[in-house]
Design goal:
With about 150 residues, the protein is of the alpha+beta class. The protein folds into two domains: about 50 residues, no CATH class; about 70 residues, no CATH class. It has four helices and three strands.
Length: about 150
């Protein structure tokens, strides 16, 4: 998602698989389908019998994808506890993103609008970021990349 135009995903053909039935390729195709539904991948196509060309979606597409039953969601509550595990830098990036989003909508960038927009941004971005020790840094990077996209769109 870091502004890559296309990504080549090499799966191999599966010729050496048990009974010649590929395992990795169908699993990757399934994962790409799910990532497309989540707004992470814009499209993909077969490049060769052992690879796919994947076009990442712009980060703003994460906000346009409708929620589906079974999608993982970031549990948030409508108070500051929602951001308790985030570093100050990540909170600031979410705040800047919320203010910018409200400005683009023509809405006043005042509380409680900013807080609610921060929660919306946090929830939408958080759905695409896996758990792990670097989740905060990834969330901050996604928020900053979305800000960059908004700047480029103006």
């Amino acid at each position: 998602m870091a502004r890559a135009v296309e990504v080549l995903v090499i799966t191999g053909r599966g010729n050496q698989s048990t009974d010649g039935i590929p395992v990795v390729r169908p699993a990757v195709a399934g994962a790409l389908a799910k990532l497309r539904r989540c707004g992470v991948v814009e499209s993909w196509q077969e490049h060769s019998p052992g690879s796919f060309v994947v076009t990442p979606a712009p980060i703003k597409a994460l906000f346009e994808v409708p929620r589906r039953h079974g999608d993982l969601a970031v549990a948030v509550v409508a108070d500051d506890k929602a951001f308790a595990g985030l570093t100050d830098r990540t909170r600031m990036a979410l705040h800047q993103l919320a203010v910018r989003s409200l400005q683009q909508l023509g809405a006043p960038a005042v509380e409680p609008f900013v807080h609610d927009e921060m929660l919306r941004q946090f929830s939408a971005l958080g759905r695409s970021i896996p758990s792990g020790s670097d989740r905060d840094a990834r969330l901050r990077a996604a928020a900053e990349a979305t800000l960059d996209e908004l700047d480029d769109a103006e």
